[in-house]
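Sanity check. The docking grid for Z5A depends on where the pocket ends up, so I'm generating a full predicted complex first rather than guessing from homology. Inputs follow.
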Amino acid sequence: MKTSAKFISFEGGEGAGKTTQIHLLEKALKAVGISVLVTREPGGTVGAELLRNILQHHKEAHWDAISQLLILYAGRHDHVEKVIKPALARNIWVLCDRFADSSMVYQGYAQGLGVEFVKTIHEAVLHNFQPDLTFFFDIPPERGLKRLRERYESSPESQKYDCFEDQNLEFHRKIYQGFKALSHNNKRFVNIQADLPLDQVSPQIFRALSERFHLTL
Ligand code: Z5A
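Predicted complex below; grid placement will be based on this.
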């Protein structure tokens, strides 16, 4: 049975395994005849990718949290209007590597702007537009960062400066707490036990989608 296209976001701390699982899910959805678009934030359009680069790779800019948030929402508006909504209108499922919940947690919670402030900006820019479902990849930050260290060791060219990863462990613990708090008792979220081998993470995602959207994956 075909269901209408869904917008699904993947959230969590660094090295949680989101990107890896998005590609496995893309394959599984395509295998049952569903059209899929994979995208990411910050980014997803020409303009939003330029903004991503400005945010992540220019230490000299010293963006404060409000400036980051406004840049992120400029990109997000572009992304939603030019890519996400048009795909959904063409019955293409959208798998998005991070979305507005990352702003709630990184800028609102961990950098102190407050979740209510971020919600106000969200409503002003995107009204009530939100994913149909959000997977929170639940993994202690130490474990996610260890995976990234291992990736950098095997592929040193990925060590380009990234202002978000250049934070101490305390910051990453706050991010983890922020996602825990945001997802708690929120029906849009499905909590994924991400600190498990790959082949034990995907079935959790497939099961949740099958239950919510009556698919057989
Ligand atoms: N940000 C923000 O502040 N506000 C916002 O509104 C938005 C974003 C939208 C984007 O980072 C940064 O922007 C992010 C928040 C901020 N902060 N940081 N840093 P990004 O897109 O560059 O990075 P990321 O989203 O955190 O992705 P990541 O670090 O690459 O992690 P991931 O996608 O969750 O994991 P992965 O790439 O799939 O896997 C990481 C490694 O682990 C890799 O080598 C895999 O092979 C390995 N892996 C994956 N799964 C497993 C399992 N199950 N077992 C063992 N190893 C595994």
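Relevant for the grid: Residues 65 and 107 are 6 Å apart (CA to CA).
Also worth noting: The chain has one domain: 7-213.
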